[in-house]
Amino acid sequence: MITLASDFGTPYPAAMKGVVLQTSDARLVDVAHDFPRQDVRTAAFWLREVLPWFPPAVHLVVVDPGVGTDRAAVVVRAGEHALVGPDNGVCLPAARELAAGAEIEVFEIDLGDPASSTFHGRDVFAPAAALVHEAGVDAFESHEAFAPVDGWVDTSFPEPTVEDDHAEGEILVVDGFGNAITNVPGEVLDGRYGGRVTVNGADAPVEPTYAAVGAGQRLVTVGSHENVELAVNRGRGEAAFDVRVGDTVSLDYS
Amino acid sequence: MITLASDFGTPYPAAMKGVVLQTSDARLVDVAHDFPRQDVRTAAFWLREVLPWFPPAVHLVVVDPGVGTDRAAVVVRAGEHALVGPDNGVCLPAARELAAGAEIEVFEIDLGDPASSTFHGRDVFAPAAALVHEAGVDAFESHEAFAPVDGWVDTSFPEPTVEDDHAEGEILVVDGFGNAITNVPGEVLDGRYGGRVTVNGADAPVEPTYAAVGAGQRLVTVGSHENVELAVNRGRGEAAFDVRVGDTVSLDYS
Amino acid sequence: MITLASDFGTPYPAAMKGVVLQTSDARLVDVAHDFPRQDVRTAAFWLREVLPWFPPAVHLVVVDPGVGTDRAAVVVRAGEHALVGPDNGVCLPAARELAAGAEIEVFEIDLGDPASSTFHGRDVFAPAAALVHEAGVDAFESHEAFAPVDGWVDTSFPEPTVEDDHAEGEILVVDGFGNAITNVPGEVLDGRYGGRVTVNGADAPVEPTYAAVGAGQRLVTVGSHENVELAVNRGRGEAAFDVRVGDTVSLDYS
């Protein structure tokens, strides 16, 4: 199985699929091709949330603002999974989850000069993903295209501060529903469902699910990623809480 | 085969696919993941139009404004098809078509406490769909997760009034082309192609196809769903006829 | 393998897939379903760029502003590939690439009266694509639904003028990143990376890749389609160069 994720929109991902299918019979599964363009951190967040739900697979990941520069192309082996993409950190948060405690190994890809300097998804990453898939996640490095490396670029997310009655974090992403997902662990709301919390100085109910409040009403909940989330039932939390990605979120739950 | 439909956008559907693929080798086919958010009736309309074109399959349907509340999770058996989704009526209009006269049976899903209270697509419906697929549409209820129920939530569409020279209905949905699809059966236009009809007081030609009128010109036609449709050749019927979903449409064809 | 491309958005492509799967086990691969609506030339451009990356396949292509009129439905055989779609030229530029020098052959499709006059993707092209796939690209014409024809509609792209120090062309398409893709062959920039070029009277750097200039800076490059492209690193070239599809582009590189 090969999953595909990018910021390409359409129809560029189809060219990657065509290239893969020239040499592989792998099942192809799209993760998303509408990641915010050239936004490595947001893509890294979503991949970390979604890829761990897959069985062992090769994950082709192309959010690559440095395409054609000297940034490396890499395969990241993480347990029974491999991620193929640019060495810009986009794969690393997901890799740590997928490795499930195993050591992460990174291999640089060298397939010779690519056909283009602007579309390595098609000309480097897709053929590399097919090679990894056909050789096997535990064996691909026997192919001369792959050489182990010791250093690589990582992506980290900001750390929240969590105290007994207060937490301070950041909006990491806003999902398609308008839910503003913070980096504050959901544990701070343990035992508080049905109660209230202060968000950036304003009061809001803490509820286990969106429909616990009326349509259009704000709530604070713990999303499926297990982080604190600012939401509106049948509406957009980002607007109602007036927050954007990168904004500070201050929670008081004394 | 498992089809997938939701109002999730991306990348949440990929998490559902990963979960299914952990326990099933089913072919996966996306129906749509951009249904209007939390709009059960519109999703029910489209599923009724599209799913009957599929061979026997399990249909995973998640438009679920009540996620995490006490609304049940159900499997709807309809002939050789099964639909898996929330008990909010979203599956029922399609199920009636798919049953092809057979009796519809509904089973409540109990997989124990889900991992989240906000993403049952991933934590309840996806694993349930995989179970139904692996056990078979005619046999899944032998699994302890499924218990037959007698009552369920349905979705109905408004009924038009149809007279010899007049029909009154409603705009059910507007498709991506801007075609405004009514609930008035196309039969009212039988034999009228090439003629005229009055729509909400204004005159319009009745034609079998969009390009029968000039680019930018209005027409009334019978769409592929066999209902009367207000359209513009190479333009948007909703704008030209000034109608929105839920608006009344009055047709005079005396 | 059957690829699918259209201007349908969702969920209409799913109906086509259902129909195909009723009679075929083919792998289905989406190329794009968000081509600009009824824009045959843009779709033809993208198909020409993307389809040649696929192994032998049947390509179901539906951008069909003349649906229901007397425009024919055709299969275009191009080497080991077949394209199934309306006879409006949308398949021809891709077919020339896929034929790889072999002669293109065109067959009219006659499946009897279709169920609708507005959705031939579902009622004509999908079943025809399944027939071609099951019979084989080299053998489908033995089926009575297919009859060879001598004439067909083509799509051509405007020809640029290229001189030693000057080229004049046109913006063919703008991709999702905002890159404005011209019809001027990339060869005019050979040996000029690191230099400058004048675009519609204004100076711009010529670089092999987007990140060679600062974020938000303009550049002229050769895209993966091997044409000259007007771009902005991490921004939109169409806006920065103030060009739209169909606009003239004048390049001076003396």
UniProtKB/TrEMBL annotation, chains A, B, C:
One Pfam family named in its UniProt record: SAM_HAT_N
Record keywords: S-adenosyl-L-methionine, Transferase
Domain of life: Archaea
Domain S-adenosyl-l-methionine hydroxide adenosyltransferase N-terminal, first and last residues per copy: 2-134
InterPro entries recorded: SAM_HAT_C, SAM_HAT_N, SAM_OH_AdoTrfase, SAM_OH_AdoTrfase_C_sf, SAM_OH_AdoTrfase_N_sf
Keyword S-adenosyl-L-methionine: yes
Domain S-adenosyl-l-methionine hydroxide adenosyltransferase C-terminal: from-to ranges: 169-249
Molecular function terms, GO-annotated: transferase activity
Keyword S-adenosyl-L-methionine: yes
Family per similarity comment: Belongs to the SAM hydrolase / SAM-dependent halogenase family.
Protein name stated in the entry: S-adenosyl-l-methionine hydroxide adenosyltransferase
